[in-house]
């Protein structure tokens, strides 16, 4: 079967579901410049709750887009970093984010 | 204020939320080749429920991405069509869909 996001049984569908999600798109973009700690991500993604950020990062980690590294320091330091796959996913997501920023004035609801 | 999807108060955030959504991305892509009736969209978007499709189309219509036209026929014909804005939004969304289809084999969860 060719990969087809329109097919309900295609694993692409799950992947599109993961990436085509506001918080995933913002979290991956926030990691483009290098690793960040949880608190730094939370500050960058204005308005996200700690719970939603935790769930978002766990999903990205499970799908191989982000790694989570724990440093044995006091206080404990936990850093999140893009994998090569996560880095590659940033291009289409950045395209979507910049399209929205450039076209926001055309949306009737934003008036 | 410059438009910034990372700012909680920016209207871009709502728009990213609308577009960065699996069903919106699939519905807009399905309309790229021309107008479609509700039933045709439902067939194309395998696995979507009528309720979710109705809500998705209504949101896209409210945000000026899709028009809904009712033809006084028996049975009633209702067609959905992309607006120029909706057509422009298809480019970044197609980028995301094709990236997922091309890279699905790299995802551990899809193994």
TrEMBL record, chains A, B:
Q: Which residues form the HTH hxlR-type domain?
A: 10-108
Pfam families cross-referenced by the UniProt entry:
HxlR (PF01638)
> Origin, by domain of life?
Bacteria
CDD domains with a match to the protein in the record:
HTH_ARSR
State the Gene3D superfamilies in the record.
Answer: Winged helix-like DNA-binding domain superfamily/Winged helix DNA-binding domain
SUPFAM superfamilies referenced in this protein's UniProt entry, alphabetically: Winged helix' DNA-binding domain (SSF46785)
Q: PANTHER family this protein is in?
A: HTH-TYPE TRANSCRIPTIONAL REGULATOR YODB, TRANSCRIPTIONAL REGULATOR, MARR FAMILY
Output this protein's name. Answer: Winged helix-turn-helix transcriptional regulator
Species assigned in the record: Dactylosporangium cerinum
What lineage does the source organism belong to?
Answer: Bacteria, Bacillati, Actinomycetota, Actinomycetes, Micromonosporales
């Amino acid at each position: 079967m060719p990969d087809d996001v329109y097919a309900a049984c295609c694993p692409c569908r799950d992947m599109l579901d993961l990436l085509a999600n506001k918080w995933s798109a913002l979290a991956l973009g926030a990691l483009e410049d290098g690793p960040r700690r949880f608190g730094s991500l939370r500050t960058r993604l204005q308005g996200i709750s700690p719970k939603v950020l935790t769930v978002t990062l766990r999903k990205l980690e499970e799908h191989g887009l982000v790694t989570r590294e724990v440093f044995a320091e006091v206080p404990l330091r936990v850093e999140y970093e893009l994998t090569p796959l996560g880095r590659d996913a940033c291009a289409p997501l950045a395209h979507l984010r910049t399209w929205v920023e450039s076209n926001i004035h055309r949306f009737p609801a934003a008036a």
